[in-house]
Design a protein that fits this description.
215 residues
Length: 215
């Protein structure tokens, strides 16, 4: 039988503090993370951050949920045709209805990048398209070199989990993945390896929120 109990903000906070400690949960609850791209990487990252009680999430994507997304992205059949920003926000609120979630249903371009990210805390790059990845990373490094940026490259197929790593490439730039594996016929993007890479991104963001910057 489905529970109808509505949890209070205090109950959820107490449970998180029990798991993480009040001191660390305070930092997570105050954390601000912008996720650009809500596909296989971004939807998994958002789930992880919502579950640990990151208090402020900014979700950016222009796309709608497609049936081909269901093989790796955190959506369900009833979300097909919905904007990913709306679908993901509704799902995250089932985990923790008290998280502050801002959405922008828009395509990130060189023209709007500054306005979209000028107030961002930690930035998570989670695009599928290589050109979009490069545009966002280069734009953040150029305009906001002081912001922490966590990106991903190389997670296609079903190869070894152990080749996916987190590397610190610059002072404020972290890259997750194997940096090699691109999607090809028969070796496309699949849930297990994409989720491993997304978990690397989410874990690095968690460490940054808690003040642990070294790899």
């Amino acid at each position: 039988m489905e529970s109808t109990k509505v949890l209070t903000k205090e109950e959820i906070q107490a449970a998180l503090e029990e798991r993480h400690s009040p001191e660390k949960q305070k930092k997570l609850s105050e954390g601000r993370v912008t996720i650009a791209g809500l596909g296989g990487l971004g939807s998994n990252v958002a789930y992880a951050l919502a579950r640990i009680g990151v208090g402020h999430l900014h979700l950016i994507d222009f796309d709608v949920v497609d049936i081909t997304n269901l093989n790796r992205q955190q959506y369900f059949t009833e979300h097909i045709g919905m904007y990913k920003t709306d679908a993901l926000k509704s799902l995250l609120q089932k985990i923790n209805p008290y998280i502050d979630i801002q959405t922008d249903c828009i395509k990130v371009t060189e023209e709007n990048l500054i306005s979209l990210f000028e107030n961002a805390g930690i930035i998570c790059e989670a695009f599928d398209n290589p050109e979009a990845k490069a545009m966002l990373v280069n734009g953040i490094l150029e305009h906001f070199p002081e912001k922490k940026l966590v990106s991903a490259s190389g997670m296609a197929g079903y190869g070894s989990s152990n080749t996916i790593r987190t590397r610190r490439l610059m002072k404020n730039f972290y890259l997750c993945g194997d940096q090699v594996t691109e999607p090809t016929y028969g070796n496309g993007l699949m849930a297990p390896r994409v989720a491993i890479c997304a978990a690397h991104e989410a874990n690095m963001i968690t460490r940054l929120l808690l003040g642990e910057e070294e790899i």
